[in-house]
Amino acid sequence: MSLEGGNLICFNPSCNKPQNYDRNSLTCQFCGFTLLLKNRYRAVKVLGRGGFGQTFLAFDLAENSPTLCVIKQFWQVLDRGDAIDKLKELAKHPQIPAVRESFAENGYFYLVQKYITGKNLAILLGEKGQFSAAEVWQILENLLPVLQFIHSHQIIHRDIKPENIIQRKSLNDLFLVDFSAAKLVTETSFVVPETTIGSAEYAAPEQVRGEAVFSSDLYSLGVICLNLLTGIRPFHLFDLANNCWVWRNYWLSDLTSSVEYDLAQILDRLIEPSLEKRFPSAEVALTEMQKLRGKKIPISVPPPTQTWETYATLVGDGGIFSGINAIALSPDDKMLASVSDDRTICLWDISTIKEDYTIKGHTGKVKSVAFHPHSPNILASGSSDRQIKLWDLQKREEIHTIVGHNNSVNALAFSPDGQIIASGSADKTVKLWHPETGEQITTLSGAKLGINAIAFSPISPLLASASSDRIVQIWDLIKFELICTLVGHTGGVRAIVFSPDGKLLATGGEDRTIRLWDTTNWQCNSILSGHPWLVSALTFSPDSQILISGSWDKTVKLWQVSNEKEIAMLVGHTDLVSCVAIFSDGSFIASGSQDKTIKLYKQN
Ligand SMILES: Nc1ncnc2c1ncn2[C@@H]1O[C@H](COP(=O)(O)OP(=O)(O)OP(=O)(O)O)[C@@H](O)[C@H]1O
């Protein structure tokens, strides 16, 4: 969906003609109510309307490239900061959408959440028809732990229905949305008034009486499963006259397969109208499922928010006279090299956290630096003097100078085997060289503007280059030809890195976003937004689970790759962050800044 393609929706719940065709208008053509919230949100679709208010699909224009989000508008202005804090706490779970912000405007209360791209279970049922027993078992395995998590936070969801469960990529990747009807058990209401009790078809008998308990959510989940297995609405699966479920009459199964037999047993205990006979908790239901199948059910837990603190700030004895442009760690983590506009390369001894020595030789700003992956004594540097220099750090002398670029050498990288050195330049080309001889292997041309960053794949003969023309190019290093062009960034691309397992490529840039690309099909899997300013640097943790980003907003952020959630922010720099690096055991993160310092952070 694009902002250009659709109409704008009026935020006034009483507006009779909410569709607006003038996409530049700030107010509704019919009722005059605002079409722009907080100067950044434009609604493009109504996703739902319930007892508490409306839910909109919206674009957030504050990001340079508008990103989709979900905005819930509550009829009344809520003064429940503690409820929002609780929602934020829940949203740390990988299967619950992140809460971006909440605010009051024009007499309504708004909650902005991350938009989960996928299809809800009601849509999936309509599209594909009845689910198999194995698929429903998978859904239970995936969702019961989420219920266990929210219940452990003393919250009852109270509106578990197919529309509120979104499948992202597979039935192993489900999200639970819409906590508007949720209730904190110790209090009378959570977000909306107590009278809101969720959807009658899926609600447990005690919930209908206004006495919801934790296992009321289990009941609703069980009823969803009946609906998915039979394709029939829950009302028709219950015999009111005899007060019992008759779902088995509609299930086209003779219980021959063991999974069907086991599933039926579990479902019967989930949808039990009597509280005494129903599973008392998600944990008990999961234990029973594990017993029946004889296998442990993996449970996803929220990534713990990490706290990193500044361990050391590296400031040169003789002083670094300009901001840091790039840093590199030696393969043994013993040395850190930094380069700056003052034309020098500084070598820092990590054991003493002191500047060891400075190398001079470039006649321009030093823009890029890389260690040989297997020889800690060989370093390459690239400069605005258009030269690449290779240095022998043991002898502290230059090995040779490589010339060939017509403009600044902005990026340097060694291939994983150390046999090739690649350079990316403001002259719009990437060049490959033999490090030992300095001979040029080839030139990869195609970018329309200067190259800002390059990265070798750790597992395949591929090189990725990022340029100011907003595109990323993937090069085959056997045939030296372009394999594909990744389009999506709406500003110049400044940073690029492959995950150490080679499965992902991360790119970041002037549009303030980070994109994660699947290296098997080169599709953009996710967009991470959170930096309010240009993303200048990226690196992955050694286990590929965490992405580290540096930004002109002066911060470094850590992102959990599996659920795209920000898990830490490292602060302290007083000017823009230009580069980041992580030690090979993941113990320290380093960042270089235009504030002329390098910071080392250690996890608490
Ligand atoms: N974060 C989200 N990402 C993607 N889709 C969402 C998200 N939140 C809600 N939705 C979709 O929008 C639909 C409507 O949202 P929601 O259920 O919150 O509003 P409603 O229908 O107005 O409320 P209620 O169901 O409580 O009456 C949901 O059923 C779900 O499919």
UniProtKB/TrEMBL annotation:
The keyword Nucleotide-binding applies. One of its GO terms (molecular function) is kinase activity. SMART domains: S_TKc (SM00220), WD40 (SM00320). Residues 41-292 form the Protein kinase domain. WD repeats lie at residues 324-358, 359-401, 402-443, 444-477, 486-518, 528-569, 570-604. ATP binds at K72. The keyword Metal-binding does not apply. This is Protein kinase. It comes from Floridaenema evergladense BLCC-F167.
